[in-house]
From TrEMBL:
Residues 38-481 form the Major facilitator superfamily (MFS) profile domain. It comes from the Bacteria. Residues 1-15 have a biased composition (Basic and acidic residues). Keywords: Cell membrane, Membrane, Transmembrane, Transmembrane helix, Transport. Signal peptide: none annotated. The keyword Transmembrane applies. This is DHA2 family efflux MFS transporter permease subunit. Its main location: membrane. It is a multi-pass membrane protein. InterPro entries: EmrB-like, MFS, MFS_dom, MFS_trans_sf. Residues 1-28, 486-512 are annotated as: Disordered. PROSITE patterns: MFS. It is found in: Cell membrane.
Amino acid sequence: MTGAADDRLGRRHQDQPGAKPSSEPSSEQRIGWPVWRLAGVIVFGAFASGMDASLANIGLKSISSDLGSTLATTQWVTSGYLLALAVSLPLSGWLGRRYGPGRVWLASLVAFTVASGLCAAAPTVAGLIALRFLQGLAGGLLIPAGQTVLGRAVGSARLGRVMATLGIVVAVAPALGPVIGGLILHGGSWRWLFAINLPIGAVGLALGLRYLPRGERGRAPHLDWPGLLLISTGLPALVYALTAWGDRGSLAHPVVVGALAVGVGALAAFVARCLRHREPLLDLRLYRRNQVYRAATVTTGLTGMILFGSGLVFPLYLQVGQGQSVLATGLRLLGLGAATALVMPAAGRLTDRHGGGVVSAIGCATLVAVSVAFALLPLDAGEVVIQIVLALFGAATAFAAVPAGIAAYKTVTPEQLPDATTTVNIVQRVGGALGGALLAVVIARNLPDDPEGAFRHAFWLIALTGLLGLLSALWLHHALRGAEQSGRTGCAPRPGGGSAPVEPGAGVLEDA
């Protein structure tokens, strides 16, 4: 049955006399098979994009050797991909309104898959870097476009459970990257690091063409080219400044200062333009009139710092601190990803029942406790102890990071959802870049003289960030309670009833 057929069934059900609307705000409302199937289709794009963020890291040395390049140049295979992700995100909202989020997802998956095949055949490192940039442009659209499709399909009352399914893949895919990459390099060429996306993309495209709702072609405003130029300059410059800060170990380095000035200046001009322009590239006025959205986005940024920052710390902790091999490190990190995946559905269900603020607060409080435990552990701690603490960290990350994003999406209308998913993803990625840069600086400065102290300081910094996340999550909880009491649209239902109305039309699959 196609997405269009599912949509017609949903609409017929709504049209029947006395039929219960599919978007009725009940946290216990059953989610039908068509929605779960749709989530499964979107998972393919999320998995490919997320895995590629870490998969190539493990092959940089092999690529350098094979293509006759220096490691400093080859690292742009990874950095260029991350910068491209930041560049393409702002276009996601406009493209979704103009062509329909389903069409954007399909086109992005095609482009991502083709670029992956070309990366596998790249003859020079310069060509590989350019193709990785194109791959990143496509990959940056996959997750926000997929989130928009799901958000419109399921409705706000059940959004937590479905988004948590997508969140499993988003969280686990980067953790699987080093493991899969290590296995590939153990028995084959680095080119298979990119060729592996060909079958994944082909399966995802076949399923998407059959089941993905395309969305309506909208009356999107004219593309704000000056705004696009500002944010396309500001975001990469800011991400590059943070990355360069980590590489050079000094915020006063001329390259860092210059990139930071360009990034902050361009983004400040972009924000000012969006607040004044009648048809902005992104509707940042959501922050002005929606306290829940403000609090949820701040919480997402702080938990993004922990999510992506810890992704840098843990491999170094195991490889440098404990002397593990690349493959052994990847296998040991499976426990972290597995714990996140196992807990994610529970985080989604609890978010639907109790709201994102309280769930995220519990996760952030646990992150603080586990980070302090890591800071106090000696580097030669036993394998069992390390695996237990890693699993607790992964579970806490699921509770901290996922509910905040869901809360942001729940409180906006379907028309605002493309802008909301885009903005939240931008804040999370910039937060992740900031977290990674700060932790890299802390470790780099202390590692030569005091390896144990280097990681101790890093985990204390993660604990501090978790504490800030806890305060932000409590702010989100307060904002959600206020919104429910005032009857704001899209708020999560409270246990026992009394939930706010849900946006019209949510929960019905769109026309294909």
